[in-house]
Amino acid sequence: MNERFSRQSFLGLNSETVVGNAVVGVVGLGGGGSHIVQQLAHLGFRNFVLYDGDLVEESNLNRLVGATFADAAACVSKLAVALRMIRGLDPTAEVDGYPGRWQDQPDALQSCDVIFGCVDAFSEREQLEATCRRHMIPLIDIGLDVTVVGDDPPVLGGQVILSMPGEPCMRCLGFITEALLAKEASNYGGAGPRPQVVFGNGVLASTAVALAIDLLTDWTRHLRRVVYLEYRGNEHILRSHPRANNKGIAPVCQHYPLVNVGAPAFQRL
Fold it and tell me: How far is CA 46 from the centre of its chain?
C-alpha cells in the first residue's frame, strides 16, 4: 500500500485500488461541493466529473473551501478552485469539468460510480435523481438551510440522503413534494441570497463522503439500503430522519421503476 494511504488501510486491503479507480461526480462546487471535492482528493480519488458555472465572489469566502481573496478579486471559477485542490494532491488526477449547468451536458454523469448532488433547488434535485435512476447510479444529496422567524434564534438545518436505484427515492421519503415544487416555482428568482455557513456544510459533506466510501469499500458491512439523515445544527445533532423509518414507505420505489433504465426513448405520435 502507498505510504500516503497507510492510515486508512482499515477501509480494506483493496481500498486504495477501489478508490483510485472509482469515478465520482459532483454537481455544484459551492459550500458543500467544495468540501466534498477536498475530502475525495485527500482520500485518493483520481477520477472526477465536476459541474459548476459560478465564479468566486467575496461572499463565498465564508464557506468555499480552497478559495482565496485573490480568487474573488480575479473572479476565478469555482471549477478552477476545485481543480487546483485536486491537482495539488494528485497532479495526474483525471478531471472532466464543465463550467455550466449539468443539464446541458449530462452524458458525462453516466460514467460515474457515485454522484454527489450539491444543488439548492428541489426541482434540480428531482431532475438529477431521475438521471441517476435511469443510469443505475447511487446519488448522495446534501443541503443546508437557515430559517429565521421573528425574534427566535435562527434555525440551522439540513439533510443527507442516499438515493439508491430501486429503493425509496426523495419523493417516497417525503423530501420532495408537489407542494414544495409549486412553492419553489412560484417564487422563482425571488428567493435572494441564502444564508450559509462553513461548519454546517462541513458536517453534511463529511457524512456524504463517508457514505460514498462505505458504498465502494463496504468497510462497515452495514450500509445496505437508503439513508435519510437530518441535521439539526442548533442542537448539534445528525440523526436518522423520522420518515426514514416510516413503515408506510414502500420498500421498492414506485416513482422510478427499475425497468425504466437507459436513455429516454421518444416515439413520434
Answer: 17
pLDDT band at 266 (very low <50, low <70, confident <90, very high): low
Query: Please, what is the end-to-end C-alpha distance for the chain in angstroms?
Result: 58
Measured distance CA(18)–CA(22) in Å, rounded: 6
**Which of 49, 26, 242, 224 is closest to 142 using CA atoms?**
26
What are the respective helix, strand and coil percentages of the chain, to the nearest 5?
40, 20, 40
Superfamily designation of domain 3-241? NAD(P)-binding Rossmann-like Domain (3.40.50.720)
pLDDT in tens, 118-130: 999 999 999 999 9
Phi and psi (nearest 5°) for 115? -125, 135
Q: Given a cut of 80, is residue 5 above it in pLDDT?
A: yes
Q: In what order do the strands lie in the sheet with 47-51?
A: 94-98, 47-51, 23-27, 114-117, 139-147, 155-163, 227-232, 237-240
Residue 84 has which C-alpha cell? 487546483
Domain boundaries, the chain: 3-241
Beta bridge partners of 48: 24, 95
**What value does the mean pLDDT take over residues 224-245?**
94
d(CA 23, CA 101): 19
Q: Is the pTM of this model over 0.85?
A: yes
Cell digits of residue 54: 459560478
Packed helices 178-186 and 122-134: angle between N→C axes, nearest 10 degrees: 130
Measure the CA–CA gap between 42 and 153, rounded to whole angstroms: 36
Asked whether 56 and 81 are in contact (CB, 8 A), the reply is: yes
The SS3 assignment for 142 reads: strand
Number of residues that make up the chain: 269
